[in-house]
Amino acid sequence: MEYTEIIEMITQFRDSRGWAKYHNLKDLAISVSLEASEVLEIFQWKDSKEELSEEEEAKLKEEIADTLIYLLYMVDKLKMNPYEEIQKKIEINKNRHWKEDS
Ligand SMILES: [Mg+2]
Asked: How far does residue 51's CA lie from ligand 1's centre (Å)?
């Protein structure tokens, strides 16, 4: 599935539920953070080396998808090209973070 098809799929879903009126940038940003917290919740109280169960891994993927969906709603609202922005940010990061000696 192409990026534009994904945007179309999620915006069609949003519109079919009448949710567009709630999708302002502030509330979308809150939703990104809440869904990202659900990603984190899966690891709560676990030992750092502990493996996830199959069920937990499935839940993790679901919460990552929820987070990405809200980010994509923001991307769409801002009419930004996420690939260009990622490339720009990686360039900034290259200058900001020096490579560690290995
Ligand atoms: Mg969720």
From this structure: 21
